[in-house]
Amino acid sequence: MQHMAGTLAEKVWDAHIVRRGTDGAPDLLYIDLHLVHEVTSPQAFEGLRLAGRPVRRPDLTIATEDHNTPTLDIDRPIADLTSRTQIQTLRDNAREFGVRLHSLGDADQGIVHQVGPQLGLTMPGLTVVCGDSHTSTHGAFGALAFGIGTSEVEHVLATQTLPLAPFKTMAITVDGQLPAGTTSKDIILAIIAKIGTGGGQGYVLEYRGEAIRALSMEARMTICNMSIEAGARAGMIAPDETTFEYLKGRPHAPEGADWDAAVEYWRTLRSDDDAVFDAEVVLEAADLEPFVTWGTNPGQGLPLSGRVPVPAEIADEGERVAAERALEYMGLTPGMPLRDVAVDTVFIGSCTNGRIEDLRSVAKLIRGRRKAENVRVLVVPSSARVRLQAEAEGLDRIFLDFGAEWRNAGCSMCLGMNPDQLAPGERSASTSNRNFEGRQGKGGRTHLVSPLVAAATAIRGTLSSVADLGPDVEAPDGSPLTDTPAHLQSA
Amino acid sequence: MEKFSQHTGVGVPLRRSNVDTDQIIPAVYLKRVTRTGFEDALFAAWRGDAEFVLNQPAYATGSVLVAGPDFGTGSSREHAVWALKDYGFRAVLSSRFADIFRGNSGKQGLLAAQLAQDDIELIWKVLETAPGTEVTVDLVERQVRCADVTVPFQVDDYTRWRLMEGLDDIGLTLQHEGEITEFEQTRASWRPRTLPAKHLPPVEIRSARPVGAVHGDDALA
Ligand code: SF4
Fold this sequence. Notes:
The complex is a heterodimer.
Chain A: H1 8-14, E1 17-19, E2 27-30, E3 33-36, H2 42-51, E4 61-64, H3 81-97, E5 100-102, H4 112-118, E6 127-130, E7 144-147, H5 150-159, E8 161-164, E9 168-175, H6 184-195, E10 203-208, H7 210-213, H8 217-225, E11 234-236, H9 241-247, H10 256-266, E12 279-284, E13 291-293, E14 301-303, H11 317-330, E15 345-348, H12 350-353, H13 356-366, E16 376-379, H14 384-392, H15 395-402, E17 405-406, E18 427-430, E19 445-448, H16 451-460
Parallel strand pairs in A: 3-4, 3-6, 4-5, 6-7, 9-10, 9-12, 10-11, 15-16, 15-18, 16-17, 18-19
Antiparallel strand pairs in A: 1-2, 2-8, 13-14
Chain B: E1 6-14, H1 21-24, H2 44-47, E2 64-67, H3 78-87, E3 91-94, H4 99-108, E4 111-114, H5 117-129, E5 134-138, E6 143-146, E7 149-152, H6 157-165, H7 169-174, H8 177-185
Parallel strand pairs in B: 1-2, 2-3, 3-4
Antiparallel strand pairs in B: 1-5, 5-6, 6-7
Helix pairs in contact in B: 3-4
Bound molecules: iron/sulfur cluster.
Iron/sulfur cluster (SF4) binds near residues 66, 67, 350, 414 and 432 of chain A.
């Protein structure tokens, strides 16, 4: 049979078919890596227990505590009863079923989507699942990675497979070079604003083009992370030297002959030149600017240089009503410059932008300055390892001198399941991924931004970009500030 | 999952339409970490009312719920099926089910049987005239029998087969366990394993403290 040209996503899918579905029945797909956390796993483990089933492959499963964990006083009992119960349940289940768990206080505890990559478990060509929608993050390595529900978590625990219906493919090409002060967060916010929060529904998105290839591994994770905010099943980026370099030497990365065999295979993981996508979108990187959201879904975003939309000027009735409602909730005046929006809190963290490069670029920008008065600044590393690395580089001192709070790792104010929440009516600039009503706390108002915009906003007190800090302020990148001790070099 | 071919139990007439999942089980119960023991949560908002059908002694041991149209609408909540099953229901009869609810039921061994609304009315009358009357739901014959009423119901072939075989999703997949094992033997050795665990050198973590406390002077207990 002739070789059919394939997309990256199709290649990874095909390599995992245990059993092909006939007559429109789903394919049974093998799962390489199953990430588990405390919120969506308790009933899955209990289901196993009730049916007398073991975890089929504990050696392909790893758990961490993240959604509920406090970011202060992690060595003291967790005050909130629900949080404490969920975490204790995960600990009991991990012990009973033989699943590896990184608990609070462990260097590899942290947001589940940081833990996989930092341990070198997330690799190109894998299928990765987790009971969490932002599992799409791992697609940055060229893995097919998607979020699943609790009954599917149980299914994977019991069988290491999932019956899955096929998806469509969409190529998103970002050509050219990003302007200074613009980051991968701005790329993805612009993409979502363009295709809408339902634009990716049923698709696996593949990000490609010069601007994507130029991104660091961590910047790529930010883009894939938010694929779900465009409604997509997953997001992917073809692996390349940047990917291999990130992986090499990580604890679970292949070694020796295995490494060579892996890299040889990984190089084949790209969409063939004549592969056909079901949809294509093209963006010009040079046209992008720092982006912020003004509304209550991630598609309601605009360049920071713009103004709050005027609903009366929106032709589409559905969108107009949505905008009116969003502006009322957000407490914004139609037509006001976005730069005039004053915030109460700046949150730097989450699985979207809580990694070491994010922290470094923020630290470089704020070094030697003080935060605006009346603004609370919360810096929450995505994992304990990232926190250690940041401290080894002296970033924590820069944050504290700036007037920010330096916290332990976890999801924190991204969703406020722990005590880190906005008060009703409080407004934040947040590097996380969702600005839904009440997401960061009941009545809280969220503007999604990049780490650079978050830092500039913390300095000025209103939504700001690096350019607003003056003509001679350069936009920093995510490279280290100082030499890092060798034993910490892989956060 | 238990095999289901025929079930006989006390019928409970629930004369309400549009019973959504939030009414079946209110959101506050979703914080629990168990998947059994939701019997107290079933119809929690209505249970305080002494007149509510489940509070009447004749129906207390009910296991066949006879509900109005559009049962199980609203957010997709597997807990709704858990709560019905935990209370003791084996079957729900209605003239129309929400798709997601019907799907969740079939997967978890609760029969969602679709009847004509006229037939539902007939059964309601029997159950209300003689509370405690038993209803037989016969999956083999696709028939509901209750006193002198015998009426057909609909259920799709696939769900019927699964219920009769007692197969949940996992059971279905495990029918192909041989193929899974075979696939596993072909996996390249570079593919990662989480065990045995490989770590970077262990490091002591000190807890961050509220701002104002002296930073870092308080070692991890
Ligand atoms: S950081 Fe936020 S988005 Fe990411 S896993 Fe945690 S709660 Fe979900």
